[in-house]
Amino acid sequence: MCGIAGIIGNGEQSVAAERVRTMLGELEHRGPDDEGLMEWNGAVLGHRRLSVFDLTQAGHQPMISPDGETGIVFNGAIFNFLQLRKELERCGYIFRSRSDTEVLLHGFREWGIDNLAKRIEGMFAFAIWDNRDKRAFLVRDRLGVKPLVYCSKNHQLAFTSTIRALKRASFGGQLDPNGLIEYLEFGFLTDKSSIYQDQKKLSPATILEWENGVVTTRKYWDLPEGMNEEIDFDEAVEETERLFLEAVEKRLQADVPIGALLSGGIDSSLVCWAISKLGGDVTAFTIGVPGDDWDETQIAKATAQRLGIRHEILEMSGDFKLDVHDLVKAYAEPFACASALGLLDISEEVSKQATVLLTGDGGDDVFLGYPEHLNFWVAEKLAQKTPGSIAKLLQNTSHMFPNIGPAKRASSFLRYTFGGLGGVTRIRDGLPVYEKYGLLGERLKDARFGDREIPLSSGENLLSEFLKYDRRTRFVGEYLPKVDGGTMFHALEARSPFLDTRLWDFASSLPYSLRLKNRNLKSVLREIVRRRISPELADGRKQGFGVPVQRWLTGKWRKQFVDAMNDSVIEKTGLINAKNAIKLLERSEKGNWAPRQLWFILVLESWLRFEDNDAA
């Protein structure tokens, strides 16, 4: 895992090289082991390295072809690189390293960029400069696990691993109002937005090509459409188990110590079961929070003993400090995912013993593990059985349904049952909370958020519509960046077998009736746990690790919030009405629970202060 940077196009070479060095300085935490920079006429590539494969200088980047005409900088891991290496050796290529990067370099020369992208499996973001044809290519992995951002302006292309590194090198304009509104709505930014103007994020499964100052993009993969209605539940379980074991085995490749997270849940337990079955030399780590409701130490300990896997408990105090400084330093854009606070502490502890960490991320997203997945599936079936005239009437009168009190849940169900995805995006809290309490400043008070204007439609395909929407919003905007940013801040490479795209191809083809069999979330994965680990674990409730920032804002974090608002950047710049934010906090104290939008505001304020101070 690493950090990459580069500038392509005409311009003063010495200036370009210096700006790439600036980006590399910002990426040091992603790659503390080595730094490299290479120049051609019209191109500069830079790299920060976290050594995972081939720890020698043979793995140094930028990696250059023997004739000096092709260069690559690469962030990530290619899990089928040994297989591809054998193919390339049969074609006559001679390898000087044991790294996966060299496979990409020779693979580009042999197969071209499109066929290379289709062949590789893993998590990756890389850039290739072809000096012969004066062309550059940026490529991002299929699901978007690894970040890749760029700025294309005045026939020049600048790229790197983080928004902040790009900005530090003077690529990108002022704060983008659309990005700010998206952040205030979600608490994160998706791939379609950036916090700064003129900056873009390369979409997952996309190739960007630069030639003569012109940028074009094309997709090279997508999830298959349609479902296999012929498969039965046992077949689905058996094939999932086979593919999952293959996914874990690929991710056990490394020349450094490997760890795995083990909670009391389904996904991490399956990862550790697979490691045990495959004979992996891995230590499982459990985060212990004594006395806290989230503590799952005893369940994890029992699972580790049953599997016979090496196990350590890392105890953390349940009395978390508010370290927003680490949060804004680790994440290049405002990022208000509260559990990221815990992940940063976890990563710091694990990085003392391991360089690679296997996690259980991604299982919920494709095997359907979130409560809304079941709710939307039930709503979808109801919509399919409701006569069109009645459905249309309910859709047209949905704005009259009560949205407070005991009837709120039933009202929400009706709204998205007969309003489809548009109904879902309308009932979510977000911008209306800011408007209701007068939280938006002069610069943003008339702003609108397009997702709230998605047309109402039949809910007959609600779950399918939501899964596509969720992939391009929460999945790539919150879930994946949380893990990448939190682990890489401490130079720890996170790998999740559940993000294997062969597994995703298969799982997404399974009918919802199998993935939610007997109305059980993640029924396929639960069945594997039942058969391979224990029925008790299979029947356990999803718990997860969280930080109750909404409760703590009204208690031990109250003073810090008020102090920040009393001298706030967000008010001086016209983004937020800080006085009204304090009033809302005071109103919330009685219930000991603050709206999450106040947490979003505090993170934005802290992020802006960090940006101003760090850039000074």
Description:
The protein is 45% helix and 15% strand. It contains 26 helices and 17 strands. It has a six-stranded antiparallel β-sheet. A six-stranded antiparallel β-sheet has the order 4-5-6-7-11-12, covered by helices on one side. The chain has a five-stranded parallel β-sheet with strand order 15-14-13-16-17, sandwiched between helices. 50% of the residues are buried.
User: Kindly state the mean pLDDT as a whole number?
Assistant: 93
Number of strands: 17
**Major sheet size, sense and barrel closure:** 6 strands, antiparallel
Uncertain spans: none
Structural class: alpha+beta
Sequence of strands across the biggest β-sheet: 2-3-1-9-8-10
Q: Nearest-angstrom radius of gyration?
A: 25 Å
Strand content: 15-25%
Distance between the termini: 29 Å
- Helical fraction equals 40-55%
What count of helical segments does DSSP give? Answer: 26
What is the 3D shape?
globular
Question: Outline of this structure?
Answer:
By secondary structure, the protein is an alpha+beta fold. It is built from 26 helices and 17 strands.
List keywords for this structure.
15% strand; 26 helices; globular; 17 strands; 6-stranded antiparallel sheet; alpha+beta; 616 residues
Task: Please outline the helices and strands.
Layout: E1 2-8, H1 13-26, E2 34-40, E3 43-49, E4 63-64, E5 70-78, H2 81-90, H3 100-119, E6 122-130, E7 135-140, E8 149-153, E9 156-160, H4 163-168, H5 177-186, E10 200-201, E11 206-211, E12 214-219, H6 233-251, E13 258-261, H7 266-278, E14 283-288, H8 297-307, E15 310-315, H9 324-330, H10 339-350, E16 356-358, H11 363-367, H12 371-385, H13 388-396, H14 408-417, H15 420-427, H16 431-436, H17 462-488, E17 493-495, H18 501-507, H19 512-515, H20 523-532, H21 535-538, H22 549-553, H23 558-566, H24 569-572, H25 578-588, H26 596-615
Parallel strand pairs: 13-14, 13-16, 14-15, 16-17
Antiparallel strand pairs: 1-3, 1-9, 2-3, 4-5, 5-6, 6-7, 7-11, 8-9, 8-10, 11-12
Helix pairs in contact: 2-3, 6-7, 6-18, 6-20, 7-8, 7-20, 9-26, 10-17, 12-14, 12-17, 14-15, 23-25
